[in-house]
Design brief:
17% strand; binds erythose-4-phosphate; TIM Barrel; eight-stranded parallel barrel; alpha/beta
Length: 214
């Protein structure tokens, strides 16, 4: 399973990349706003740190998305063009596929949308689990359903679990067989922790001190 960080902060990417476990980054316009980042230099800096960086188009028509896809993919070979799950987005996914430009379909909320994006040739689809939880649904059930559909067909499209809120989402994504999780920085910081790891390490260190003082 690949691990991506969901952020527009180059510092956060640098920190998690230093752990030796980071495969990529996803960004979106809201994250860029929150980070107060400049889009192009931020994407380029992230591309120097990891191999797959999703940069989201902001046009809503096919021609505009095509232009942005061309522009973003010229910035660096690690750019993945992020396209919304709309009819214009589907046209853009198919066009990018024909040009060899990798894509990530964002704002996927149903199996039907996932199938359409896969048929259009998306490299990745991003079902948003946290936003489904927010409206009282079980977001991870969508991942399990998409995985079940994928097991029946030969879609090459990778299932990227997005809108992750906690460690439990990451656990369920791994058990379901998702290809990728994109994880916010604050959730990344929780992933290495376990009470028994902390207690066990404390006891080992105390016992080692006793060995030394003998
Ligand atoms: C994914 O690519 C999106 O940037 C992200 O996961 C959205 O998450 P949110 O629902 O927390 O905004």
């Amino acid at each position: 399973m690949k691990l991506f960080i969901d952020t527009a902060s180059v510092e956060e990417v640098r920190e998690i990349a230093s752990w030796g476990i980071l495969d990529g980054v996803t960004t979106n316009p809201s994250l860029v706003l929150k980070a107060g980042a400049e889009f192009e230099p931020t994407v380029k800096a992230m591309c120097a740190l990891v191999k797959e960086v999703s940069a989201q188009v902001t046009a809503s028509d096919f021609a505009g998305m095509q232009e942005q896809a061309k522009e973003y993919s010229s910035w660096h070979k690690h750019v993945v063009v992020k396209v919304p799950m709309t009819v214009e987005g589907l046209k853009t996914l198919a066009w990018c596929k024909s040009k060899g430009i990798p894509t990530n379909t964002t704002l996927v909320f149903s199996v039907a949308q996932a199938v359409l994006a896969a048929k259009a040739g998306a490299t990745m689809i991003s079902p948003f689990v946290g936003r489904l939880d927010d409206i009282g649904e079980d977001g991870m059930k969508l991942i399990e359903d998409i995985r079940a559909a994928w097991d029946r067909y030969d879609f090459a499209t990778q299932i990227l679990v997005a809108s992750i809120r906690d460690v439990e989402h990451v656990r369920r994504a791994a058990v379901a067989g998702a290809h990728i999780c994109t994880i916010p920085y604050k959730v990344f910081l929780e992933l290495p922790k376990h009470d028994l790891t902390e207690k066990g390490l404390q006891k080992f260190l105390e016992d080692w001190e006793s060995v030394q003082s003998k």
